[in-house]
Design brief:
Catalyzes the conversion of GDP-D-mannose to GDP-4-dehydro-6-deoxy-D-mannose. GO terms for molecular function: GDP-mannose 4,6-dehydratase activity. It comes from Kalanchoe fedtschenkoi. Keywords: Lyase, NADP. The chain contains ten helices and 13 strands. It has a domain at about 25-215 and about 250-280 and about 315-335: NAD(P)-binding Rossmann-like Domain (Rossmann fold). β1, α1 and β2 (about 50-55) form a beta-alpha-beta unit. The protein is an alpha/beta fold. α1 (about 35-45) crosses α7, α2 packs parallel to α4 (about 120-145) and α8 crosses α10 (about 335-360). The radius of gyration is 21 Å and the shape is globular. The protein has helices at about 35-45, 90-100, 115-120, 120-145, 180-200, 220-235, 255-265, 285-295, 320-330, 335-360, and strands at about 25-30, 50-55, 80-85, 105, 150-160, 200-210, 210, 240, 250, 250-255, 275, 280, 300-305. The structure holds NADPH dihydro-nicotinamide-adenine-dinucleotide phosphate (NDP) and guanosine-5'-diphosphate-rhamnose (GDR). NADPH dihydro-nicotinamide-adenine-dinucleotide phosphate binds near residues 57, 61, 86 and 208.
Length: about 375
């Protein structure tokens, strides 16, 4: 991968001899995350050149995008480029904006785990809230210096911002955040609105409800469950420790949601949109569907562990996405049961591969993630 190098990865900006001038250029922060990987595939398919900002890690953190990576030495084929930066480092953000000169910016980077945000609130605010502000400010000064007024900005907002406000939640529902993560997303939301109103930036907030996939991080509840189902079915695990099973979420498929992000940036005027399936299920309902799909009873395996309860919970989220459906023409393609089955099926295959390694003595049968 380009990120393997100790020097900065190669750039394919507009001044690059191999770049096609008419091709649109997108810049994605958080490209190594769940949504970043699906959005990259989506934009490459649409003919974009995609630049992603990645942060330095002592382990490679690019496993979700390795399958679409082409070595930059094949410059005419490599349309995804990676660059080191960090949302806590304003100078890196400004520098890459100037070099890459993107048409569209998708700010997906975040410390995105709600429970973890109670443990590291200061860092969460720095990346999620002030990080968004740094990127907006870098964009404002990039536009002032370059005269490129047509750059479009997407901010990854969250249904967590509604928090304690009862459903259905739409663009006009008041925010009542219940965690440092959610409060930081509210700040990022209003920074984005403010830069739109104050400086005329083309900047949109997507208020996305929970979206999952086989690429979901393993410590979010859906993937934690489907990973466990796969491992229990294959005989690598017996118990699954969980917290509050009565919380209800509006769960969709990440592949559908990245399309809505792109659609927002194709409108004549910038605006904010709720993106949701409009169906809500409890964690317990997810358990029933996931264990049931492989003929298991969740009650035989799940143990409630207080450590997974949060200091303040968000009880019930269910979106009203009528604006996105009407204005953008967006609607979800994957329903709840289809999503659960997709995730369980993939995690059964993953567990089978793990079992081969365990049986051959190359891996310990680890406990649940
Ligand atoms: P992930 O946690 O899977 O990905 C987060 C990404 O942000 C990763 O690429 C991560 O890098 C990167 N990142 C974290 N900290 C920094 C930093 N300091 N500087 C630069 N990059 C950083 O999240 P998702 O893909 O699920 O979500 C994408 C965005 O959408 C997030 O902002 C999230 O808060 C928001 N959101 C998500 C929803 C969901 O249900 N998935 C719903 C609503 C909003 P690394 O790989 O190195 O960790
Ligand atoms: P959420 O997702 O907090 O909605 O944030 P998560 O999957 O972490 O929790 C959903 C619900 O499940 C309950 N729960 C557990 N959660 C986890 N992680 N682990 C457990 O063991 C467990 N047991 C029960 C939680 O209490 C909660 O009620 C996600 C993230 O992607 C955010 O970045 C995003 O903004 C929102 O979705 C929309």
């Amino acid at each position: 991968m380009a990120s393997d190098n100790d020097s900065a990865p190669a750039i394919n900006g507009p001044s690059d001899a191999n770049a096609t001038p008419e091709r649109k250029i997108a810049l994605i922060t958080g490209i190594t995350g769940q949504d970043g990987s699906y959005l990259t595939e989506f934009l490459l398919e649409k003919g974009y050149d995609v630049h992603g900002l990645i942060r330095r890690s002592s382990n490679f953190n690019t496993h979700r995008i390795n399958h679409i990576y082409i070595d930059p030495h094949n410059a005419h084929k490599a349309r995804m480029k990676l660059h080191y930066a960090d949302l806590s480092d304003a100078s890196s953000l400004r520098r890459w904006l100037d070099v890459i000169a993107p048409h569209e910016i998708y700010n997906l980077a975040a410390q995105s785990h709600v429970a973890v945000s109670f443990e590291i609130p200061d860092y969460t605010a720095d990346v999620v809230a002030t990080g968004a502000l740094r990127l907006l400010e870098a964009l404002r000064s990039h536009i002032a210096a370059s005269g490129r007024h047509d750059v479009r900005y997407y901010q990854a907002g969250s249904s967590e911002m509604f928090g304690a406000t009862p459903p259905p939640q739409s663009e006009t529902t008041p925010f009542h955040p219940r965690s440092p993560y959610a409060a930081s997303k509210v700040a990022a939301h209003w920074y984005t609105v403010n830069y739109r109103e104050a400086y005329g930036l083309y900047a949109c907030n997507g208020i996305l409800f929970n979206h999952e996939s086989p690429r979901r991080g393993e410590n979010f509840v859906t993937r934690k469950i489907t990973r466990a189902v796969g491992r229990i079915k294959i005989g690598l695990q017996s118990k699954l420790f969980l917290g509050n099973l009565q919380a209800s979420r509006d769960w969709g498929f990440a592949g559908d949601y990245v399309e809505a992000m792109w659609m927002m940036l194709q409108q004549e005027k910038p605006d904010d949109y709720v993106v949701a399936t409009e169906e809500s299920h409890t964690v317990e309902e997810f358990l029933v569907a996931a264990f049931g799909h492989v003929g298991l009873n969740w009650r035989d395996h799940v143990v409630i562990d207080k450590r997974y309860f949060r200091p303040a919970e968000v009880d019930n989220l269910k979106g009203d996405s009528s604006k996105a459906r009407k204005v953008l023409g967006w609607k979800p393609k994957v329903g709840f049961l289809q999503l659960v089955k997709m995730m369980v099926d993939e995690d059964i295959e993953l567990a089978k591969r793990e079992k081969v390694l365990v049986d051959a003595g190359y891996m310990d049968a680890q406990q649940q993630p």
